[in-house]
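Q: What changes when glyoxylic acid is included in the input?
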Amino acid sequence: MRIFFAAQLEPAEAQAWREALRSAARGHEWIVHAAGRRDDDIVQADVAVVANPQPGSLSRLRGLRLIQSLWAGVDRLMADATVPAQVPLARMVDPAMTAAMVQSALWAVTALHRGFFTYARQQQQAQWVQHPQRRADEVQVLVLGLGTMGAAVSAALAAQGYGVTAWRRREGPLGSSGVTVLHGAQGLETGLAMAEVVLNLLPLTPHTRGLIDAAFLGRMKAGAALVNFGRGGHVVEADLLSALAAGRLAHAVLDVFASEPLPADHPFWQHPRVTVLPHVAALTDLRSAADVVASNLARLQAGQPLLHLVDRARGY
Ligand code: GLV
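A: The predicted holo structure follows.
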């Protein structure tokens, strides 16, 4: 098959992806957007493998049968009107990426529960102060989103002994054992009222954009913490800063932002109660993700059902 690789990445990263994809999915013709290439070549591609494609770069691919994202979140693709809407779109579900997200979630929840961010602040003041040590089962965590990552994170937190509730927007399959599942507006209210840590892993859709606003933060328990490993668009940043200033929220661990890279003068950078990560909670793993792409290409070629297709109406 002819495969068009459309990515806006650092040159070294793009090169590493091309090599990993070529070696995982052999026997295909890879077309890389390069200066001097005849446009006819690109128009005839069967598949587009994409990572932040330039808007408009897919609109001329007439014979496309699959758009395969290298990223788990497809919100940018969904928002790009030039991405052909009738072509099946697969998102990345990469086991190594899910494992990385579980590690990040365990780190953030453990650090919040055990006061490690507080101890880091104390170190800056040379303060030797011990705080009471609580057990994991004394801490309630609310996980927002019950997709691949939300389910894996909920199960891992429950296995550590945390009291875990997972919230999904709509009713759906239950989570794993030890995880209470809530849904809908009422379920969210119930979950927020009891959680000490709220960890966001929702997909960004028109329904979830701006969900974490003043009203949401106002429903959280006083002194609770927020972890955002979803998308920056889920959070109304000004409302989050107000909740932190008012002392309603004790701490926020943020990996994603309305504007990335986070601007140098953004108040989050210097905020003593905000931990900033540069969108690294879970990166796509080159080797395992290339295998996921290869298996979807093989399925397409064999006429078998494709994996991890996005429901365009739902938006994820
Ligand atoms: C990362 O945020 C991804 O969507 O893959």
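Observations recorded in class: The mean pLDDT is 95.
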